[in-house]
UniProtKB/TrEMBL annotation:
<keyword id="KW-0808">Transferase</keyword>
<dbReference type="InterPro" id="IPR012791">
    <property type="entry name" value="3-oxoacid_CoA-transf_B"/>
</dbReference>
<protein>
    <recommendedName>
        <fullName>3-oxoacid CoA-transferase subunit B</fullName>
    </recommendedName>
</protein>
<dbReference type="Pfam" id="PF01144">
    <property type="entry name" value="CoA_trans"/>
</dbReference>
<dbReference type="InterPro" id="IPR004165">
    <property type="entry name" value="CoA_trans_fam_I"/>
</dbReference>
<comment type="similarity">
    <text>Belongs to the 3-oxoacid CoA-transferase subunit B family.</text>
</comment>
<dbReference type="InterPro" id="IPR037171">
    <property type="entry name" value="NagB/RpiA_transferase-like"/>
</dbReference>
Length: 214
């Protein structure tokens, strides 16, 4: 696949069970919608819409946006509601999966995705609530930062968003699954090698069976 972001998004879509309610974060997560079967999911956005769909150019409504202020469409049967009700859905455990971006994820499974020290921020948004309330957390991110530093680290140096453990991490190099104690490298992405993953990861992980063979 030519675009690594799409490669990550497509793999993330495979983690979604049929008939799930899914919240997509900003960035790579928004691309996941392109790889989901319309008959088997409902997309939720914390600003008050259940039934998000792709938007047609001739049907853009400046008031119909997702949490990242991007125009969205409405699926058949979509429902609108107050953002307070939307957050009640999240906090009440009614969102089956949240797919979020990350600045860092550490060996304890903690996610930092809302602030970089010394830089202006808008706020944490719904990420904190989603990390606590969603039944499954899937992180989609590039494996390293623009400066080449690892994003999967031993311990977060950026402010963490929540102590909730991320269940799955999907990058342009690898897929990691939390096994209850630590992350397990379960697959390599694209043309990535095990050596490349090891050299660009300071997060503590074990290598799954058959990974890197052949």
């Amino acid at each position: 696949m030519s675009n690594v972001k799409d490669m990550i998004a497509k793999r993330a879509a495979e983690e979604i069970k049929p008939n799930s309610i899914v919240n997509l974060g900003i960035g790579i997560p928004t691309l996941v919608a392109d790889y989901l079967n319309d008959d088997h999911f409902d997309l939720h956005t914390e600003n008050g819409l259940l039934g998000v769909s792709a938007v047609r150019e001739d049907d853009i409504d400046p008031l119909r946006v997702n949490a990242g202020k991007l125009p969205v469409g409405e699926a058949v049967g979509a429902a609108y509601f107050h953002s307070a009700d939307s957050f009640a859905m999240i906090r009440g455990g009614h969102v089956d999966a949240a797919i979020l971006g990350a600045l860092q994820v550490d060996s304890k499974g903690r996610v930092a995705n809302w602030a970089i020290p010394g830089k202006d921020i808008i706020g944490v948004g719904g990420a904190m609530d989603l990390l606590v309330g969603a039944k499954k957390i899937i992180i989609t991110t590039r494996h390293v930062s623009k400066d080449g530093s690892p994003k999967l680290v031993g311990e977060c140096t950026y402010p963490i968003t929540s102590t909730r453990i991320a269940d799955t991490i999907i990058t342009d190099l690898a897929v990691f699954q939390w096994n209850g104690e630590k992350y397990v490298l379960t697959e390599l992405m694209g043309d990535a090698s095990l050596e490349e993953v090891v050299n660009n990861t300071t997060l503590d992980f074990e290598v799954g069976v058959n990974v890197g063979e052949g």
